[in-house]
Amino acid sequence: MNIRSLCAAAAASFLAFTPPGVLAQAYPTKTVTVIVPFAAGGGSDNIARAVVTKLGERSGKSFIIDNRGGAGTNIGNELASRAAPDGYTLLLGQITLSINPYIYPNLKYDPQKSFVPVAHIATAPTVLIVPANSPFKDVNAVIAAAKAKPGKLNYASGGSGTSVHLGGELFKLLTKTDMTHVPYKGSAPAMTDLIGGQVDMMFDTASSALPHVKGGKVRALAVTGDVRLKELPNVPTFAEQGLKDFDVPVWYGILAPANTPASAVQWLNTEINAVLKDPTVAERLVSIGAVPVGGTPAQMAEFMKAQSDRWAKVVKEANVKVD
């Protein structure tokens, strides 16, 4: 037998007795970047870091976060949509992917076509908060005041078209009230003016509102969802106060550019689901006002479609425009 024949025989033997997974380099083989379309230190960034940090620890692979805030998350979203579909650039998707197509006419990405869902990480309830010295003690008092003097009450948001803004518009539609929207350039200045009493209320995400509620700087009147928030056990839900249809789940999930290999998506989904079951991660998410979710990519895709349909209707009915 010549050298060529010996090599061929050896190769055949190796293929026959080597498990398939060993033949190909297992994903990931290099650093995975997760684009977070928000500035560092905010609620969304904290949720991303709680999961991504543990994902790296569990897998022994390198995962880093790249904060690309601005333009209503469109800067980060677009950047992720143009990344190579190889599994090494991911996006922290958020509720804005369900809203932006209906308020920004010239998006350079399509939330339904530019990405493939990987895993639904968490949802965060929306909390109605007022200044600590506000006369309002519950939701019905707010509704009564809004109906008594249409347009006089106002609510702050971090900008037109944000989930906080849309939450206020949905509240107005469901309660048949008229309140004035006061948009700010970011949630931080909106919260500052709320604490100072310059605005009447804010429909904020729990992850953003919790530190201020616990610190006594603002008062929480209600939370969305079927049950009370564990971190705010004394704050009733909107449903408990007669507004059962008001639900604004601010969702968070990991997405990848369209056409990312299914094997990479499945690996990530399996690992992220395992991370979400880790008690330390679950406790961390709950402590910052988020509820771990998990599930399959298909379930996340179905959820995103339902959310998109819902917010398209709200934007149309409320005639929401971006300032």
From TrEMBL:
Leader sequence residues = 1-24
So which domain of life are we looking at?
Bacteria
List keywords of the entry alphabetically: Signal
InterPro entries per UniProt: BUG, Bug_dom1
Record keyword Transmembrane helix present: no
Into which family does the record put it? Answer: Belongs to the UPF0065 (bug) family.
Q: What is this protein called?
A: Tripartite tricarboxylate transporter substrate binding protein
